[in-house]
Write a structure and sequence with these properties.
This protein is an alpha/beta fold. The protein has helices spanning about 10-25, 30-45, 45-60, 70-115, 115-120, 125-135, 140, 145-165, 170-215, 220-225, 225-280, 285-325, 385-395, 415-420, 440-445, 450-460, 465, 485-500, 515-530, 545, 565-570, 575-595; strands spanning about 350-360, 360-370, 375-380, 400-405, 410, 425, 505-510, 535-540, 550-555, 560-565. The protein folds into three domains: about 15-330, ABC transporter transmembrane region fold (Up-down Bundle), CATH 1.20.1560; about 345-425 and about 505-570, P-loop containing nucleotide triphosphate hydrolases (Rossmann fold, 3-Layer(aba) Sandwich); about 435-500, Rossmann fold (3-Layer(aba) Sandwich), CATH 3.40.50. Helix content is about 65%, strand content about 10%.
Length: about 600
């Protein structure tokens, strides 16, 4: 399939124009003040070059010394006005631009945080961090001094052009033709640079993502002596980023060299023709010096375009990437979700559910079952059989392509997520903790919980048994992703977090997988307390939880191949019985070989 040609620069800018206007509108007052200041500043900057004509032709040439003091005073006043305007511009526009960046970062982060789980499954963390932190950085040039400088430069050029034509129309016309040619050349080059800046944002996201993975997986990398391999992978990413930057720098250098060469040619031509004009008596020396000074104001924006234009090009590329993210439909923007979930009783039903992440690759096929309120439903099966996908549908992380998932008879596809998920508790196999204290991580599920409630939840989950041994007790900082705690300790914190949430529907996805037999035995009472009166769904290998389930669903290749309680499934002698016997024999052999008791487990 042939790739579509990239849109022209003008079309892409027009597509971004509504977004740009939306950013400018709340700040139009500040930008207007900035524009006035830049006009005053640029007009003041013309005083010095304009004074040279009077200095040379009148004060020096005609010996009118009485004009020197007023002229110097005018120059000094203009200089002070320029300085005051420059300071005010920085205070008004630069700070406004930084506030805009902070606002956009909050906006993009809030938007990404509300995107469906599927978005996080297909985008790297580093890429999302780059969208939030890096892509919006260039906006300061769109709604800050960059844009105003560009407008100011154009304004100054227009003013200078008028004075130049008044001084010498012949020289000005010649210079203008060359300047316009250079400007067209630079505009063409910027159009070629924009895809390079877009690609840079993508590469930065990939490199940042890999770096985060490497730092987060330091223990695994060291355990498998993979430091050199990770250095090579990261180095390759940095090399791609370097090549992209060098490519853009080459383009910028070509523009700079071209501008300097062509504009130098303008200076040489003006010098040649201007001298002949002076000799012919058509131009005074003062007028020629003034013309040369104002010519600099005409051509300066061309040099500025190389710098400001690069900044604006990079900013527009970042804005395009930001626009892509903000264009993604949030979970809470689903127009079909209009029903506020009342207090849940807990009857969950799957009716003919089919689900697939990719077209033609079914994950769940015709799944149907009912979980009555207050019961425990366990899901058993090999890895990749569809257990976690089933749990994900119960958590409303996705919608089935066919069939329905209902809670108390209400389709989950139609309920507002906030009203449903506030009654949902989840303890996942991969326990995630924030880099805060033990207390903060437990209280995360219920920010308004009382101290007694928090301590009670930690006591039920047996968090107190290890937390009390730390010098800072419950104020112990757990580190990034809970790195300072063991796997079992992290899961106990996660269980306490779920207990504190007091959910109506509870999901335990390998909630005790990181616990040793002794630790699991300690928190079984906590799990029993947590599951009491709640509709619970369990993915677990250890039979200590599964055996008590009212129903066990054996899932294979997306189908429910067996269902029933522990005793019924054993009597059937099918897949569950086979798994049970094999795991039971394995545990028995380990017990005999090591002389230690082990928990019965099932895959």
């Amino acid at each position: 399939m042939q790739k579509s040609a990239p849109k022209p620069s003008s079309d892409r800018f027009r597509a971004l124009l509504p977004d740009l206007l939306a950013l400018i509108k709340p700040r139009r007052g500040q930008l207007l003040i900035g524009l006035v200041l830049i006009i005053v500043s640029r007009c003041a900057s013309l005083v010095l070059p304009a004074s040279t004509r009077f200095l040379i032709d009148d004060i020096i040439g005609k010996q009118r010394h009485e004009l020197l003091t007023p002229l110097v005073a005018a120059v000094l006043t203009a200089t002070l006005v320029q300085a005051a305007c420059s300071y005010s511009l920085t205070q008004i526009l630069s700070k406004a631009a930084q506030r805009l960046i902070a606002e956009m970062r909050r906006k993009v982060q809030a938007h990404i945080g509300r995107l469906p789980v599927a978005y996080f499954d297909t985008h790297k963390t580093g890429e999302m961090v780059s969208r939030i932190m890096t892509d919006v950085e260039g906006l300061r040039n769109l709604v800050g001094t960059g844009l105003v400088d560009l407008v100011g430069g154009i304004l100054t050029a227009v003013l200078a052009l008028g004075i130049l034509f008044y001084t010498s129309a012949k020289l000005t016309a010649l210079a203008l033709v060359i300047v316009l040619s250079v400007t067209g050349f630079l505009a063409h080059f910027f159009n070629r640079l924009r895809p390079i800046f877009r690609e840079r944002g993508k590469i930065q996201g990939e490199v940042t993502g890999r770096l985060q993975e490497t730092l987060g997986g330091a223990r695994v990398i060291k355990a498998y002596r993979a430091e050199a391999r990770e250095e090579a992978v990261f180095g390759a990413g940095i090399e791609r980023l370097l090549n992209n930057i060098l490519q853009s720098l080459t383009g910028i250098s070509v523009m700079g060299v071209s501008a300097v060469t062509i504009l130098g040619l303008v200076g040489a031509i003006v010098m040649w023709l201007g001298t002949h004009e002076i000799i012919a008596g058509k131009l005074t020396l003062g007028e020629f010096v003034t013309f040369t000074a104002f010519l600099a104001f005409l051509v300066a924006p061309v040099f500025g375009i190389v710098n400001i234009g690069t900044q604006l090009t990079e900013a527009i590329a970042g804005m395009e990437r930001t626009r892509e993210v903000l264009g993604e439909l949030r979970e809470d923007q689903d127009p079909s979700r209009t029903i506020e979930m009342p207090v849940i009783q807990g009857r969950v039903e799957f009716a003919g559910v089919h689900f697939q992440y990719e077209e033609g690759k079914p994950v769940l096929q015709d799944v149907s079952f009912v979980a009555e309120p207050g019961t425990v439903t366990a899901l058993v099966g090999s890895s990749g059989s569809g257990k976690s996908t089933t749990i994900g549908l119960i958590a409303s992380f996705a919608k089935p392509q066919q069939g329905s998932v209902t809670v108390d008879g209400i389709p989950l596809a139609d309920v507002t997520l906030l009203s449903y998920r506030r009654q949902l508790g989840v303890v996942l196999q991969e326990t995630f903790l924030f880099d805060g204290t033990i207390r903060e991580n437990v209280a995360f599920s219920t920010p308004g919980a009382t101290e007694d409630d928090i301590l009670n939840a930690m006591r039920i989950a047996r968090v107190d048994e290890f937390a009390e041994k730390f010098p800072d007790k419950y104020e112990t900082v757990v580190g990034e992703r809970g790195v300072r705690l063991s796997g079992g300790q992290k899961q106990r914190v996660a269980i306490a977090r779920a207990i504190l949430a007091n959910p109506r529907i509870l999901i335990l996805d390998e909630a005790t997988s990181s616990l040793d037999s002794e630790s699991e035995a300690l928190i079984q009472a906590g799990l029993a307390h947590l599951m009491k009166g709640r509709t619970t769904f369990v993915i677990a290998h250890r039979l200590s939880t599964i055996r008590r389930a009212e129903q066990i669903l054996v899932v294979e290749n997306g189908w429910i191949v067996e269902r029933g309680n522990h005793e019924v499934l054993l009597e059937k002698g099918g897949r569950y019985s086979d798994l049970y016997k094999r795991q039971y024999d394995l545990e028995k052999n380990l017990f005999l070989a090591e002389g230690e008791g082990g928990e019965e487990v099932i895959t």
